[in-house]
Amino acid sequence: AQKVTQAQTEISVVEKEDVTLDCVYETRDTTYYLFWYKQPPSGELVFLIRRNSFDEQNEISGRYSWNFQKSTSSFNFTITASQVVDSAVYFCALSENSGNTPLVFGKGTRLSVIA
Amino acid sequence: DGGITQSPKYLFRKEGQNVTLSCEQNLNHDAMYWYRQDPGQGLRLIYYSQIVNDFQKGDIAEGYSVSREKKESFPLTVTSAQKNPTAFYLCASSIWAGSGNRETQYFGPGTRLLVL
Predict the structure, then answer these.
(1) B112: which chain A residues are within 8 Å (Cβ-Cβ)?
(2) What residues have CB less than 8 Å from A100, skipping those under 6 apart?
(3) Closest CA to B91 of B39, B40, B43
(4) What integer pLDDT is reported at residue B100 of this predicted model?
(5) Spatial separation of the C-alpha atoms in residues B59 and B38, rounded to whole Å
(6) Is B101 in contact with A102 (Cβ distance < 8 A)?
(7) Nearest CB to B43: which of A44, A46, A105?
């Protein structure tokens, strides 16, 4: 069965620090998709990135970067030079190509960036 | 603007009452989903629909019902059988590629349901 673990429940950092949010997943499929979403205080989930299991290249988008390592079943998310606007709950999610459940979420990591 | 709308933003339910949450999308997406979020928890799937007039139960479907009469709309009814309905409800939609679960889901702003 598919499972996503975000071991960090809450993280607090001072503005301009770098921070890494961990995501570990479990799946038996060889084809699967990993996602990160941001949930600001307003509540709406904002899509950040989608990565398929055959593409292990790291990705950078501005201050955001993602490190996908199949060997450790991890898909970690780093924010460089954090800002107060980055304060939110961040969710990692997994979708198995042949699974019955479209998308399985981790429990989320609450990030607080302090000015 | 294209997007997903949910209404109302806040909803109050009395004991024994059925309430319906609205979800509408104009993204021309085939698939729609309903999730429940409890404090400190991830999202749990209630129901989803890949095409009009068809839907499947998710992990926590008991006490809920849905319909999919139009592609754009996927209302969720919280019935009196749902004993602990207080939660944040999120609707999402995605393209459906015909097989597999690989498409990105996009979310609406959510409805917060409270029991009086």
Answers:
(1) 43
(2) none
(3) B43
(4) 60
(5) 14
(6) yes
(7) A105
B106 to chain A: which residues are within 8 Å by CB? 47
Q: Which residue from A33, A35, A102 is facing B33, i.e. has the nearest CB? A: A102
- pLDDT higher than threshold 80 for residue A66: yes
**Greatest pairwise CA separation for chain A in angstroms:** 44
Q: To the nearest 5 percent, what fractions of chain A are helix, strand and coil?
A: 5, 55, 40
Task: Enter the tokens of residue B44.
Answer: 């749990």
Q: How far apart are CA B60 and CA B13, in angstroms?
A: 19
CA distance A78 to A41: 20
Distance CA(A15)–CA(A61), nearest Å, equals 19
**Rounded Cα–Cα distance for residues A92 and A32 (Å):** 13
Best mutation target among B43, B55, B90, B113 (most A Cβ atoms within 10 Å) is: B43
pLDDT digits (tens, 9 = 90+) for B24-79: 999 999 999 999 999 878 899 999 999 999 999 999 999 999 999 999 999 999 99
Q: Hey, which bits of A16-106 come out as E strands? A: 19-21, 24-26, 32-39, 46-52, 59-61, 64-69, 74-79, 88-96, 104-105
